[in-house]
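Q: Predict the assembly, please.
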Amino acid sequence: MCVEEAFSKLCLSEKGSDDAIGVKSLVFKPKTAKSAVPVPIVVVALQSTTTPSPLVAQATSLKDPRLARDELFQSFFKCNSAKEFSVAYLANAESPFHLLVDRQLEALDESAMLQLNEAAFIQKSELVAYLGKFESQKQCVDFGQEVAKPDAKKKQEAAAGAASAALEDAKLIGITVDKALDFPGWYQQILTKGEMLDYYDVSGCYILRPASYAIWEQIQQWFDSKIKALGVQNAYFPMFVSSRVLEREKDHIEGFAPEVAWVTKAGSSDLEEPIAIRPTSETVMYPYYAKWIRSYRDLPLKLNQWNSVVRWEFKHPQPFLRTREFLWQEGHTAHLTVEDAKQEVLDILDFYAGVYEELLAVPVVKGKKTEKEKFAGGDFTTTCEGYIPQTGRGIQGATSHHLGQNFSKMFNVSVENPLGSDHPKLFVYQNSWGLSTRVIGVMVMIHSDNKGLVIPPRVSQYQAVVIPVGITKKTTDAERSNIHASAKAIEDRLKKAGIRAFGDYNDNYTPGWKFSQYELKGIPIRIELGPKDIEKSQVIVVRRNDSRKYTVQLNELETRIPEILEELQQDLFLKAKELFDTHRVIVEDWKDFVPNLNRKNVILSPWCGVMECEEDIKDSSAKKDDGEELEQDEKSPSMGAKSLCIPFEQPELKQGQKCIKCSRPAIQYCMFGRSY
Amino acid sequence: MCVEEAFSKLCLSEKGSDDAIGVKSLVFKPKTAKSAVPVPIVVVALQSTTTPSPLVAQATSLKDPRLARDELFQSFFKCNSAKEFSVAYLANAESPFHLLVDRQLEALDESAMLQLNEAAFIQKSELVAYLGKFESQKQCVDFGQEVAKPDAKKKQEAAAGAASAALEDAKLIGITVDKALDFPGWYQQILTKGEMLDYYDVSGCYILRPASYAIWEQIQQWFDSKIKALGVQNAYFPMFVSSRVLEREKDHIEGFAPEVAWVTKAGSSDLEEPIAIRPTSETVMYPYYAKWIRSYRDLPLKLNQWNSVVRWEFKHPQPFLRTREFLWQEGHTAHLTVEDAKQEVLDILDFYAGVYEELLAVPVVKGKKTEKEKFAGGDFTTTCEGYIPQTGRGIQGATSHHLGQNFSKMFNVSVENPLGSDHPKLFVYQNSWGLSTRVIGVMVMIHSDNKGLVIPPRVSQYQAVVIPVGITKKTTDAERSNIHASAKAIEDRLKKAGIRAFGDYNDNYTPGWKFSQYELKGIPIRIELGPKDIEKSQVIVVRRNDSRKYTVQLNELETRIPEILEELQQDLFLKAKELFDTHRVIVEDWKDFVPNLNRKNVILSPWCGVMECEEDIKDSSAKKDDGEELEQDEKSPSMGAKSLCIPFEQPELKQGQKCIKCSRPAIQYCMFGRSY
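A: Predicted assembly structure:
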């Protein structure tokens, strides 16, 4: 189609109307090697829509797009200049380009009249039909959304001209960024293209699509049955807290106040006093614990809720890891004795470690937080800590807190002394513990790869996809029907055996296209069935994580498939565990501390337990050139190392061992690392 | 203990401190018959706490408490006057009184110094110890809470001097209000004393305690598996909506705008623009449906979320029925064809009816809403409608909406035409459907009685309680152990058989006390086991709803108990169904319309389908003296009748039948009623 034809197809009209809506066509050129053929980005948008280049970059995953010069218009679209350019010239392109269409434009009525330039008008439906010719390159973009900013440091590094992280053989539909080279960009793509999550038009909030919510449901089911066996009951407390109640525990509110979202209006009326949205529910619940707990026979009281909380973080939000609203469970229990309470803290921590290790195939280290890092207002905090190999950073997995009697004294949660009413009342011992959807982000970061998501079978929404193969032009209709029917029969048998399976029998796509699709989405195994397999009464099974192939006899389907899924689950865990184990190093000399951090390790060091020393370690490890000659690692952050936890499993402390940083005697090993 | 002793016990001191906290002791007298012995209400509160009499009334469930005159101080406490009165005089009381202690006072440090009058000071711990002597009469009250107001009409009626609704034989711990005489007061007590729900310090919000949340979990499980079988997937969308998106569909937002809660601040910063909390998620979700649905192969898209939404109602809130935050599920589906969409609307409505009839034992009538009552912005709304016998009012149960293409056109949710890209794009057909925790309120209103909650076994948190009986002073320790062990063995067998059972083996309470407790809480059956039962290898089973007794042989436990539970479930449904069926009457003459409403009926009448006529019916039925001589029924509201639904199951329309109200021809029967 030449440009003249295109113009005629466009049904352009010189008769506009006064309320025609202005539309602009812009061309961006991403940063590419001089020798490479450029892949320009055409943006078709309402005149009134601003189309910032960072959003263009985000939509295409291309680096530094800039408005193109006339040379590019001439060489690529055979159009004299940017000024003359219109969508008609798209027909002249001889190699691929990106086409971004403004969602606001797409949202217009089909009958709307658009103005392309001073003299050219077109009906929206016509423009849409025309752009439809470039459907495979087209993408609809919401320019109203906020740009997902990589954190500042990353941005500098990216700008510093590191090798492009773009994957050479990636198609637009797949992942176009290399996990090893641009981890944040990869993470964002893997989540959106894998259809786990979508960005939302309120910054810091994200949509959990079925693929990720189903993982959350698996976790809920597992954890819920564990805590119910401990006697925990579920309940639901309101999401709103009055400021009076929220601010009752001072240390606690200090920890949360800067992030509290306030409702001040309902309809068109101002509320008499602002009402907070819970950032966590201690102060929501404990006034009622005080009311309900009158006697030691009311103890223990163990409640849990599955809900969402809001922490209006002003730091750069990140899907799953740091979001302004997130889903979690929060357990709040009250006990007569401190022993009973402390035992539960550890029981729950084991369940949290179980969520990571048994369900998500993510290894964690259990331990206790330092005084500096513990929960605001509590006695002590236990935690399970994970590790992200690409960044070498630790990540807090989930925490289980013992609150002691601090809140019970503040909220007067007390019971009659079992010894009699002439003995003083007893304040209860309390715990609180929470696990959030952050776990899903950690899982994705650890297992997934450049082909897409890798999801452990125990939690994935679907465990297996059945795909007919070997259908060619020579295949007769009867043969095709037979293959489809056999594949469907396999799907049915798997479902009956309790395996979350589905089939893709769409003849419009090649098996290869389907393979890529389900690799992108992280379906743990695919099951291929072709004419030869039918002859041999077998299927071919391919694992998502490493493409390992198995031939499975049909009569062994119900036993072998669960075994293969289970092996896959174990292999994911073992691989991740090896990476964590080999990057958790014991360091006893401060001179080795920073170099080891820079080698993407977390560090176990003898430590004195003093808060000032902890702060000193963080400050001292923030500089990269600590007198050492360091391997240059541009991707490693220059942030200092925080204490991650004091692991329960301790290396043996040598007699007279000094603290890694100061001259005080060491009292334990502490795990330090850069962290999320 | 005489008053002198009491004074000495009080350890009063004349040495105060400047920061001593003022404490007041007030006495209220509730409205009682002149002949009756008054049961005064003593309120001990911080000087700074206001103690409004409606809160005193609410806490004690007593009518119209007024500050007592000196006569009562003299006769009851042997104290000269209100002015001289202090807590020391409580020791003089010879008959029961209520003692309400301010939660603010209880929350003070044990060491706080209190000032009782000009010259008397006491340490808080001392006062608490003293008040502990009256523990059985004592109650801690949060005077900061809002009074749960009965609706205005009820209040007038109550004030008009109807017979007191107080139950004569009710103990303080049980329900003290008669369901038949003071339905709103009864409803409030049954929920709070049955421990289903508690009032919360943010008005219109309530706490769902485990007993009600467990019912919600049963409903979730049942409904979730039904919709998943239809191909619905769960997801989670953010609770926040930008005003731009919220206001995109005009009819829709008009319906919700007055009730939207707005977040305008985070921490101490004002947000750039206010962000709404979702009142429902159509506008939250559909921009993303537009993004995700590109081809007809992406259809149908069926998503559901279990979440909470906020509608800041300014009408009188009511637990479960009208609350500012509530839990629900909202399903949102997009279909290629209108037939597919409409079929789903009905499938979902059947599930909703199933939740009511099969799980909650509540009969409903399925039908379609009139144009006036349908969902704002949708094409049509289907509904299941319940009936509350005590008030004779209908109640909307749950609704399933067909949205047509209205939202899809507004949000541009469209697909390529399967006929080819030269055919116009197709806008999808959408549905939305929701069921909320309101269902629990309806269930409670229908089945429960003056002894407490009655909960259908299929949804109740616990289905059976095992209680040892027949233990007397003569029982030896060995016998007692044997009874306990046998009871525990029964509990274990029941649990193993999948029955949600527990046992109460606490020797400090009598079986009778326990019976009342578990009747209050609505445990469907209690299983009694005493020495004679052990001899005969049997247990006695008593049904909560009607005290019917069964003797069950131990060897039939696992078969008979589930049968008894199932019969109980059916009997609850049949009883409720009979009440609904006998109060759903066909009326064909307008003159019989209002009298039938006043007899607590809902009405099926031939109707023209015209909106003005519907409004006329409402206005005309609002007056009670419609030219008819009506049975005086003080409890029936004077509100007009709304259309509840056009039932799917229609009486046959006679030829030439006129509308019940106007002269137009009737086109169908419509169900009218006063309603919630």
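Chain B touches chain A through 79 residues (CB under 8 Å). Chain B has four domains: 3-141, 206-234+290-447, 464-560, 587-626+633-675.
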